[in-house]
């Protein structure tokens, strides 16, 4: 159902009121440099689906968003030349986890999607034509708001910059949508840390329906990202614990800066691809299903800065995608271990599903210097009725130029994932988000 735009704010207020009335957890205050993160489907999220969805429907919806996400990631890695970081396709995709940010002075509270494969931040602004949201940032109410001028070096870091008067602006397209934003600066406050003069895109106009409604906070490694703009404060270090979307009442956390990061954690080196500077590449060397290391052609896992091939950790993709030969090897061994003669069925993009209880093997991702054995909560999805169980991974879609393995958020849930850029390493430790 399409909601008339003039009703949307009202509906949101009702929704928020109702949700917060029901669930005191929605009102949690962020402390220090730690922010609460919630799933977009959480009862506390204004972006949760407007109607009650069945389990199958929500899985299929997440899968279809993944399809767009994979196209977006593949378009990044397939790029032939160095282009400005905040390119059109980088800005928009389907965000899964959101956090609370305050912008301006006095601070206006907005929800932003957290995205490790994006650099730039953007938010819908007052007067935005076509924005489907709910809550926008009002620059006129902030004393610290500034436009970025066309002459500023910052203006060169956005895609197709244009000059409206003397202010820097850019237009971009995504799927059937277009977005026009101006490049602006204001204070961004995360938990209790103010970051003065944060540069972001103030969205003025969107068309079509594929642009996501909320703001987005880019946690990539490139210029204009949160890391780049908070060098002194957070030292390019952060970690998160993503709550499971099965326990929607749980929230996770985003911990910014080197202080209070876990000491007991296993690391693998972060690999740097100068041509895809926002992505967090790691070296996935093998995959174990049960006790067997499955037979994957080395080329399917190899890091190649020229083609963009390799493996990334991404917060915005829901289900792990492996390039076809790698996925086939994992799936075949998984099926063999579950029972080679047992009937297998499909659900949307999942091709290894069972309509009866199974004993599933554990899956271990073997990275350089770090083995991560995933609890079955991270590898299997079960319908609420318990009638169907699927291996929650898939082959990279073959309609995109896929050379990329993506360790997605379902496989990261209830783990602390630490991005330690100064020491070029990524850490993973089991942790129950609460
Ligand atoms: C979430 O919490 C609300 C109220 O606290 C409760 O009614 C609901 O059943 C909980 N949902 C889940 C999935 O635990
Ligand atoms: C960008 O979009 C705005 C709003 O739709 C439009 O007025 C402007 O002409 C566009 N600029 C370019 C360079 O396409
Ligand atoms: C999977 O790993 C868990 C602990 O990580 C262990 O308790 C369990 O027995 C393993 N399952 C199988 C089928 O090996
Ligand atoms: C990972 O597992 C493999 C095979 O089980 C083992 O040989 C290797 O030493 C382990 N690596 C680490 C860093 O524990």
TrEMBL record:
Ranges for domain Peptidase A1: 97-429
InterPro entries listed in its UniProt record: Aspartic_peptidase_A1 (IPR001461), PEPTIDASE_A1 (IPR033121), Peptidase_aspartic_dom_sf (IPR021109), TAXi_C (IPR032799), TAXi_N (IPR032861)
GO biological process terms held by the UniProt record: proteolysis
PROSITE patterns documented for this protein: PEPTIDASE_A1 (PS51767)
Catalytic residues identified in the record: 115, 314
One annotated GO molecular function: aspartic-type endopeptidase activity
Secretion signal span: 1-21
UniProt keyword Glycoprotein present: yes
Keywords per UniProt: Aspartyl protease, Disulfide bond, Glycoprotein, Hydrolase, Protease, Signal
Family note: Belongs to the peptidase A1 family.
PANTHER family associated with the record: ASPARTYL PROTEASE AED3-LIKE, ASPARTYL PROTEASES
Descriptive protein name: Aspartyl protease AED3-like
Lineage: Eukaryota, Viridiplantae, Streptophyta, Embryophyta, Tracheophyta
Gene: LOC101491094
């Amino acid at each position: 159902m399409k909601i008339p735009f003039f009703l949307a704010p009202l509906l949101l207020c009702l929704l928020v009121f109702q949700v917060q009335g029901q669930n005191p957890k929605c009102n949690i205050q962020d402390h220090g440099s730690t922010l609460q993160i919630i799933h977009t489907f959480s009862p506390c999220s204004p972006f949760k689906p407007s109607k009650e969805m069945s389990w199958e429907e929500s899985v299929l919806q997440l899968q279809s968003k993944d399809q767009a996400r994979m196209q977006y990631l593949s378009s990044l890695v397939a790029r032939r030349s160095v282009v400005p970081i905040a390119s059109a396709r980088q800005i928009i995709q389907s965000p899964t986890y959101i956090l609370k940010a305050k912008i301006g002075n006095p601070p206006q509270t907005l929800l932003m999607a957290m995205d490790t494969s994006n650099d730039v931040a953007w938010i819908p602004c007052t007067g935005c034509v076509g924005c489907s949201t709910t809550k926008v940032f009002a620059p006129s109410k902030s004393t610290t708001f500034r436009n970025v001028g066309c002459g500023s070096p910052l203006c060169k870091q956005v895609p197709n910059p244009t000059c409206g008067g003397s202010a820097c602006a850019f237009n971009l397209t995504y799927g059937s949508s277009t977005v026009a934003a101006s490049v602006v600066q204001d204070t961004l406050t995360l938990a209790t840390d103010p970051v003065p003069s944060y540069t972001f895109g103030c969205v003025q106009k969107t068309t079509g329906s594929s642009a996501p409604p909320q703001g987005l906070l880019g946690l990539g490694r490139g210029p204009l990202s949160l890391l780049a703009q908070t060098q002194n404060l957070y030292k390019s270090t952060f970690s998160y614990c993503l709550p499971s979307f099965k326990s929607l009442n749980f929230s996770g956390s985003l911990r910014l800066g080197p202080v209070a990061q876990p000491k007991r954690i296993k690391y693998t080196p972060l690999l740097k691809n100068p041509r895809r500077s926002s992505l967090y590449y790691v070296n996935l060397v093998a995959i174990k299903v049960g006790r067997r290391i499955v037979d994957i052609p080395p080329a399917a896992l190899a890091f190649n800065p020229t083609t963009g091939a390799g493996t990334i950790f991404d917060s915005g993709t829901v289900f792990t995608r492996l390039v076809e030969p790698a996925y086939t090897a994992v799936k075949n061994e998984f099926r063999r271990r579950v029972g080679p003669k047992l009937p297998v069925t499909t659900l949307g993009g999942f091709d290894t599903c069972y309509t009866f209880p199974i004993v599933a093997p554990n899956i271990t991702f073997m990275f350089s210097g770090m083995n991560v054995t995933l609890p079955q909560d991270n590898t299997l999805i079960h319908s609420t009725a318990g009638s169907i169980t699927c291996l929650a991974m898939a082959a990279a879609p073959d309609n995109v130029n896929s050379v990329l393995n993506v360790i997605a958020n379902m496989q990261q849930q209830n783990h602390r994932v630490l991005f330690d850029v100064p020491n070029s390493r990524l850490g993973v430790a089991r942790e129950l988000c609460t």
